[in-house]
Amino acid sequence: MTAWHEVADLAGAALLLLGALVCLTGVIGLLRLPDVLARSSAATNPQTLGILLITAGVALRLRSWADLGTLALVVFFHLLTNPVAAHLVARVAYRTGQTGDCALLFDELAGSEPDRRN
Amino acid sequence: MTALDNILLDAALAVILLAGALLLIRIRRGPSMLDRAVGVDVAAALMVAGIGVQAASTRTRYYLSIMLVIAFLGFTSSVGIARFIAVRDRPTPRPVPRPVPPKEGP
C-alpha cells in the first residue's frame, strides 16, 4: 500500500516537471516565432498539453475523488475557452492585416471577408 | 515524501518561473496588442500551472478552486483586447488582396 503511494507520488512529480517543460517550450516558441498566427499556435502548446499534464500530476499526488472532479473541471474549462480566445485573436489579426501574407500557403478568406477597416 | 519528489517539484517550479520571465520579455516587446493578448493568455495558463505545482507540493486542496476560477476567467482579457482594443490599434493598412491566378492545366 505504501509502495503504491510512493510510486504515485513520484509519477505525479515527474508529470508536473514534464508539464512545466512543455510550458517552457511553448513560451520559447512564443519568443522566437515571427508572426501573430504562429505565436498563437505556439501559445496553445502550454495551454492544452501542459495544463493536461500538470492536472494529471496534481491528481496523482492528491488522490481523492472531489479533487479529481475539480481538476476535471479545470481541464474542461481550459479546453472550452482556449479555442474561443485563439479564434478571436486570429480573426482580428487577419482583419487588421498582421498575418504576414508571404508565409501563407493558401488564403481562403481573401475575397470573402467584408472589409471593415474604415 | 522522499528527496527525489522535492527535487522534481522544485525543478518544475523553477521551470515555470523561467517561462514566466521569458513571457514577460515577449509582453514587453510585442509589436502589436494582439501579441500581448496571446502573452496574457499564456500568463493565465502559467498561473494555473504554478498554483498546481504549489498545491501538489503542499498537498492542499484549497488551491484548486483558485485554479478553476483562473481557468474559467483567464481568457476574458485576451477576448477583450481582441474585440475592443485591437480595432483601434492598426499598425499598417492591409494591401489589396491580389486575385489568385487560375491554375494552368498540364
UniProtKB/TrEMBL annotation, chain A:
Keyword terms of this UniProt record: Membrane, Transmembrane, Transmembrane helix
Membrane-spanning parts: 12-31, 43-62, 68-90
Keyword Transmembrane helix: yes
Keyword Iron included in the entry's annotation: no
InterPro entries to which the protein is assigned, alphabetical: PhaG_MnhG_YufB (IPR005133)
Family: Belongs to the CPA3 antiporters (TC 2.A.63) subunit G family.
NCBIfam families found in the cross-reference section: CPA3_mnhG_phaG, PRK12674.1-2
Protein's recorded name: Monovalent cation/H(+) antiporter subunit G
Source species: Streptomyces durmitorensis
From TrEMBL, chain B:
Protein name: MrpF/PhaF family protein
Family stated for the protein in its record: Belongs to the CPA3 antiporters (TC 2.A.63) subunit F family.
Organism encoding this protein: Streptomyces durmitorensis
Record carries keyword Signal: no
Keywords per UniProt: Cell membrane, Membrane, Transmembrane, Transmembrane helix, Transport
Membrane topology (UniProt): Multi-pass membrane protein
Subcellular location: Cell membrane
TM spans (from-to): 6-25, 37-56, 62-85
